[in-house]
Amino acid sequence: MKIHRHWGRFVAVTLLTLAGAGCAARRVSGPDLLAQCLVHLADGGAADSVTVGLTAPVDFRHAPVPTNEAEALLFRHLFEPPVRVDCRGRAVAGFAIAWQQDAGGTVWRYALRPNLRFSDGTLVSAVDIVALWRDTQPEIASLRALGDTAVEATFASPADIAAGADPALAVWKVSEAGTRMGTVERTVTRETMDGRPVITLSGGTGPVLRFVIGPGDDPRDLLDLGADAVITADRATLRYAEPL
């Protein structure tokens, strides 16, 4: 994958991971795979914020399950399933700090992160997760809370570790403002810029992320507006970015 970087701004053919110094990415595509990667700064990155241009609409009523690449990238920073699979295909912790399979992969147990909370500070218990999954995950044959700190899920057929990385298993609730919130420690604010919606994620760890949403926009227009990165497969955009 070719990544262009210019004074802190960069463009990728299919963007998965961004780094302020030393970019890394993998050629995969589609919302499911894009949802596995995060925008981040590499060690030593100096920038305290990153602006990402999105050329598809974002509808939080779809969260945590994305319907396009824009939602996949944004939702990834707010919602977490039990397990994450990173851009190199490695299983890493989501809201679970440990996991174990039994019965040939039919039964999976997920140990919850201590002090697991929604982004508004509300504690999340194993009972909360079981209740949510019972309402939203009919493909899970049975569920039970193992005390307050673990959940056991029995799938209808054997499943591998990737089953726990399904965005549909992310824990969420509806906020007082009527939008969905997850368990990633981020504060969401909304504004507009040149008539385009802007969603800013602040707090927690990592840089402040600003997502400028321009459905149908030419990615080059978003770069001109100050986007540090865009998701694009358009080589003309790559050529445009080179001299910037």
User: How are the strands of the largest sheet arranged?
Assistant: 12-13-14-3-15
Number of domains: 2
- Report strand %: 25-35%
How many helices? The count is 5
- Main sheet characteristics: 5 strands, mixed
The ordered H/E elements are EEHEHEEEEHEEEEEEEHEH
Helix content: 10-25%
Mean pLDDT: 82
Structural class: alpha+beta
> Nearest-angstrom radius of gyration?
19 Å
Could you name the ranges where pLDDT drops below 50 across 5 or more consecutive residues?
1-34, 40-45
List the helices and strands and how they pair.
Blueprint: E1 3-6, E2 9-12, H1 31-34, E3 49-54, H2 69-76, E4 83-85, E5 91-93, E6 96-102, E7 107-112, H3 126-136, E8 140-146, E9 150-155, E10 173-174, E11 180-181, E12 187-193, E13 196-202, E14 208-213, H4 219-224, E15 229-230, H5 235-241
Parallel strand pairs: 3-14, 3-15
Antiparallel strand pairs: 1-2, 4-5, 6-7, 7-9, 8-9, 10-11, 12-13, 13-14
Summarize the structure.
The protein has 5 helices and 15 strands. It is of the alpha+beta class and 244 residues long. The strands form 5 sheets. A 5-stranded mixed beta sheet has the order 12-13-14-3-15. A 4-stranded antiparallel beta sheet has the order 6-7-9-8.
What does this structure look like?
The chain has helices at 31-34, 69-76, 126-136, 219-224, 235-241, and strands spanning 3-6, 9-12, 49-54, 83-85, 91-93, 96-102, 107-112, 140-146, 150-155, 173-174, 180-181, 187-193, 196-202, 208-213, 229-230. It folds into two domains: 3-78 and 186-241, no CATH class; 83-178, Dipeptide-binding Protein, Domain 1 (Dipeptide-binding Protein, domain 1, Alpha-Beta Complex), CATH 3.90.76. The strands form five sheets. The protein has a five-stranded mixed sheet. The chain has five helices and 15 strands. Strand 10 (173-174) and strand 11 form a beta hairpin. The chain has 244 residues and is of the alpha+beta class.
